[in-house]
Amino acid sequence: MRPFVYDQPAARVIFGIGSLDRLSGEVKRLGARRAIVLSTPEQRGDAEEAFRRLGEMAAAIYAEAVMHVPIETARAARDVARRLDADCYVAIGGGSTIGLGKAIALETGMPILAVPTTFAGSEMTPIYGLTEGGIKKTGRDRKVLPRTVLYDPALTMTLPAKIAGPSGMNAIAHCVEGLYAEDANPVMTLLAAEGIRALSRSLPIVVKEPANLEARSDALYGAWLAGTVLGNVGMAIHHKLCHTLGGAFNLPHAETHTVVLPHAVEFNREAAPEAIEIAAGALGVRDAAQGLYDLAARLGAPLALKDIGMPAEGLDRAAKLAAENPYYNPRPVEYSGVRQLLENAYSGKRPA
Ligand code: NAD
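That is the input. Now the predicted structure with nicotinamide-adenine-dinucleotide docked in place:
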């Protein structure tokens, strides 16, 4: 048995179809009196549902969440709370909306109740990202961790297949990298394997039968596990590469994860054989890299960086950026290996 440290931050999780009905009770439980509901403009309808359930505790809807969390948006939301004497935020949506909640918590220390509607997993992590003066900053702070997370699978019913598939692959990526994390521990390994099982069996159904609530529940359950893994152990080359590609070339978040993951697994295959074996077992395949590629194909998700906006002339720069700053990965990250990984991901070649 490898030595490990297990230090799980406490968060209250409520899971179940219709659990949005418990929103006002959960806000009260946090000791709050008046809540502001955060969402993207596209999810105003969900925000209104939450607002209605808050009854007299509903202070306002702030439907201005956007990608990359501009600090100005977080500050404007903070000012709304001051004006309306609110003392809590309900963030209903995907990683962008929950990211806005986290940026507000970082500035104000106010409690956030998260209601995730994608599979990204941000609600379970103390990791925040925001953009200030055109520069994206990320960090870790327990202050940004939502105090309560309410998972209601019914809210994912409106998630279209083209967002659901990549979002689920993004969650699987947290699990896979959690298996070979530098600070991996037995509990997170169990969660990661179960997360991969739940997501890989449910996502093809979510995409094929959009009205199948049972499959969506299963996927959201996997996403919870995946987010927990992401919040508890460190990630490696896959997450670092996706972060670099997103930042330097403005590629879409979940789609980039979907395309890169099989190639990152192929890259680490020899260096982390036990972890990759667990991933393959959980996917129910012989080879995890190929299994992940085939899963993305079944979901109708993108398979090549060239199809999601990556310029061919950017590959050298991306490989240099990735190899520049050393970080943990089971296999040493040097230029030529990463360049090859990126070439494969660019063309969308099935891992050998
Ligand atoms: P997103 O939050 O940007 O949402 C994408 C779009 O889908 C938005 O228009 C949103 O309104 C819409 N949407 C969300 N749920 C929906 C639903 N149920 N029905 C219909 N439309 C819905 O996408 P995401 O993939 O959830 O999050 C990506 C962002 O989250 C990235 O910026 C990423 O960096 C961040 N993230 C952070 C962490 C972390 O731990 N800090 C973890 C994962 C992702």
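The chain is about 50% helix and 10% strand.
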